[in-house]
Amino acid sequence: MPIVKIPVLQKFGIISTKYHQELQKRLELDFKKNEQNHKEKSSRHRSPLEVTEEFIKQFNAAEEPEDQEHMLDSARKILQRCKRQSGFNCKGSAHHSNLHQAWTELILMAQCKGKVRDEALDILILSMDRAELNQNQIPLLFFIAESVLYRICCDAVQNPYLISNEIKLSKLGLVSFLRLYCFHLVGKLQQFEEQRDRLTIYLKALPACEASYELYPNILLSIHIMLKVGKIICDLEFDVETNALLKKQPVPIDQSSMHPGEAEISPFLWHCLLIWQHIENNSTNLHDIIQHLFLLKGHLYRENWLDPLLAMFILGDAAKNEISCLKTLLDLGSDILSHIVQTEVKVSSDRWPWEIICSYTMVLADVCLHGSTSDIQKHAFIGFKSEGALNESNKEASLNSLLRCKASDISDAKDCWMISYCAVYNLVKICHDLKSDTNRDGLRLAIWNTLYKHKSIEKDTRVLDAEKIAEAEVNGPSNPFIATSSKTPPASESLSFFQHSGGRLARVLSQKFLPPVVHYVPTAKKNSKSHVPHKSSRIIEHSIHKKPSRPSLRQELMFDKPSPPPPIDFITRTSMDLRKVMEDQWDKELKTRMEREEKERKQEQIENAKREEEHFKEVMKRREEKLKKTSKPYELP
Question: What InterPro entries does the record tag this protein with (predicted)?
Answer without folding.
Answer: TMEM232 (IPR031747)
